[in-house]
Design brief:
CATH architecture of the largest domain: 3-Layer(aba) Sandwich
Number of domains: 2
Radius of gyration: 26 Å
Organism: Limoniibacter endophyticus
Protein name: ABC transporter substrate-binding protein
Strand content: 15-25%
Helix content: 40-55%
Distance between the termini: 106 Å
Domain Leucine-binding protein: 45-405
Strand order of the largest sheet: 7-6-8-9-10-13-14
Family: Belongs to the leucine-binding protein family.
Number of strands: 14
Pfam family, one: Peripla_BP_6
C-alpha cells in the first residue's frame, strides 16, 4: 500500500514537472514576440529620486519641488514612458532631508541603502544640505541634479553632481549690474547699500563677490554688513542698521520664509518698506506664496529676488497645467526646476538605453542641448551642457519682482513677463 502510494506520488510529480517544462518552453516561444516583450517592458519601472526638506523651516520649498517632480513623472509616463526601455515607467522615490545638514546626510545614506536601484536623484534645495547629500551620492556613484547655488558644489572634483543654475557668485556678478540698469531706467542712481544675510552656503556664495569688489566697481558704498544664523528669532538688531544708515537699497539674503517675514515686518515697522527702500534678495523663497499670505502685497511690492529658474515667458503651457493640477497660484523656481530635472533624467535614460546609474551619469555628461531643445525648455539660458566639474555652462539667471501681489520675471528680456520697476525712494 505504501509502495503504491509512493508510485502514484512519483507519477504525479513527473506529470507536474512535464507540464511545467512544457509551459516554460511555450512561454519562451511566446516571449520572442515583440508585442509580448513590449508589454513586459511596459510593466517595468525605473526609480528616480527627490531628496529635499519636507519638514522644518524649509518644508514648503520641498513641497513645491515635490509638486513639480510629480507632475513631470505623470507627463513622462502619460507620454509613453522611457521608449528606449520599451515604455518603462518612472517611479518617484521621495526622501525628506529634515532640517539640518547632518539629518540630510543621514537621509541620503538611508536612501542609497534602501533604494540601490535608483538611477538618478534631484535635490536637496538648501546648498548646505546639497553639499552634505552629494558626498553620499558621489560615493554611491549616483548622479545628482541640483538647483542649489553654492559654488562649492561643483568645485570639489566630484563626477556625479550636475548643477543646473548659475552659481551664487555668477548670479551676483551678473545680477548687480542688471539691477543697477533697472534703477537707471527708473531714473534712480543708487550710491549706498547694506547687507543682511544668513550664513547658509547659498547666501554666502551670493554675497561673496558683492563684498569683495562688485559694489565698488559699480560705485556703491557698503554702509553695513550683518550676518545671522537661521532660524531668526528677532530681526530688530539687524534692521536697526538699515534704519540708522538709510541706504539707497537693501541686500537681504535669507533662505527661509519665516526669516523673510520677520525681516520684512521689521522693515515696515521702522518705516523703511512700502516702496521707500528697494530690497534685493536671492532665492525662490522670496517668491513663495506663503510670503504673500503672511506679509501682504503692500510690503512685498517692488521687492526683487535673483533666482536660478522661474516659470517664465515661453513656459505658459506648463505653468497653466501646473496651476490646474496643484492649485498653486504660480510656478516657482522650486517647481519648474524639479519638473525640468525629472524631464532631464528621462532624456538621459533615453540616451543611455539602460536603467543603470553609471550609464545615466555618462549620458548626462554628454548632454548638449541648445536653446529650448528638449528638457532645456524648462531652464533659463542658452541650453544645457555640463563642464567637467558638472556645472551647466549655458545657464542664466532670472530676476523676479513682486508686482501687484505676484512675483513675475523681469529679467532677462527673453524670460520677462513684466517691465521692471525701481521702487520710489531708492
Amino acid at each position: 500500500m505504501l509502495n503504491c502510494n509512493w508510485e502514484e506520488t512519483m507519477f504525479t510529480r513527473r506529470r507536474m514537472l512535464t507540464t511545467a517544462l512544457a509551459a516554460t518552453v511555450a512561454l519562451g516561444a511566446l516571449g520572442t514576440s515583440p508585442a509580448i516583450l513590449m508589454a513586459q517592458d511596459a510593466e517595468k519601472t525605473v526609480k528616480v529620486g527627490l531628496i529635499a526638506p519636507m519638514s522644518g523651516p524649509w518644508a514648503r520649498q520641498g513641497d513645491l519641488m515635490l509638486k513639480g517632480a510629480r507632475l513631470a513623472i505623470k507627463d513622462v509616463n502619460d507620454a509613453g514612458g522611457i521608449k528606449s526601455l520599451g515604455g518603462a515607467k518612472l517611479e518617484l522615490v521621495e526622501v525628506d532631508t529634515g532640517d539640518t545638514a547632518e539629518k540630510a546626510k543621514n537621509a541620503a545614506q538611508r536612501m542609497v541603502s534602501q533604494y540601490p536601484d535608483l538611477v538618478a536623484v534631484t535635490g536637496a534645495w538648501l546648498s548646505s544640505f546639497t553639499l552634505s547629500v552629494s558626498e553620499v551620492t558621489e560615493r554611491a556613484e549616483l548622479p545628482m541634479l541640483t538647483l542649489s547655488y553654492s559654488d562649492q558644489i561643483t568645485s570639489r572634483g566630484f563626477k556625479y553632481i550636475f548643477q543646473l543654475p548659475p552659481t551664487g557668485v555668477i548670479q551676483a556678478q551678473t545680477a548687480m549690474p542688471a539691477l543697477m540698469k533697472v534703477a537707471e531706467t527708473a531714473g534712480a542712481k543708487p550710491m549706498t547699500t547694506g547687507i543682511i544675510s544668513d550664513n547658509t552656503a547659498s547666501s554666502t556664495s551670493f554675497a561673496k563677490p558683492i563684498r569683495e569688489g562688485a559694489l565698488k566697481e559699480l560705485g556703491i558704498e557698503l554702509k553695513f554688513d550683518q550676518t545671522f544664523t537661521p532660524p531668526l528669532a528677532d530681526a530688530t538688531a539687524l534692521v536697526q542698521q538699515a534704519r540708522s544708515h538709510r541706504p539707497n537699497f537693501l541686500i537681504m539674503l535669507g533662505t527661509a520664509v519665516p526669516d523673510d517675514k520677520l525681516l520684512l515686518e521689521k522693515v515696515n515697522e521702522f518705516n523703511l518698506g512700502g516702496g521707500r527702500m528697494p530690497i534685493i534678495s536671492s532665492g525662490a523663497h522670496m517668491g513663495a506664496p506663503e510670503l504673500l499670505k503672511n506679509v501682504g502685497a503692500e510690503l512685498l511690492e517692488g521687492v526683487m529676488t535673483v533666482v536660478g529658474n522661474w516659470g517664465a515667458k515661453g513656459q505658459e503651457e506648463i505653468i497653466q497645467r501646473f496651476k490646474e493640477e496643484t492649485g498653486e497660484p504660480w510656478m516657482t523656481q522650486d517647481s519648474i526646476s524639479a519638473y525640468g530635472d525629472i524631464q532631464l533624467m528621462a532624456y538621459a535614460l533615453e540616451q543611455a538605453k539602460e536603467a543603470d546609474k553609471r550609464k545615466v551619469a555618462e549620458a548626462l555628461r554628454s548632454v548638449d542641448l541648445e536653446g529650448s531643445d528638449g528638457p532645456a525648455a524648462f531652464y533659463p539660458g542658452s541650453g544645457i551642457k555640463f563642464d567637467e566639474a558638472g556645472h551647466n555652462t549655458r545657464a542664466n539667471l532670472i530676476i523676479v519682482q513682486w508686482q501687484a501681489g505676484e512675483p513675475v520675471p523681469i529679467y532677462p528680456p527673453e524670460s520677462a513677463l513684466a517691465e521692471p520697476i525701481w521702487p520710489s525712494g531708492g
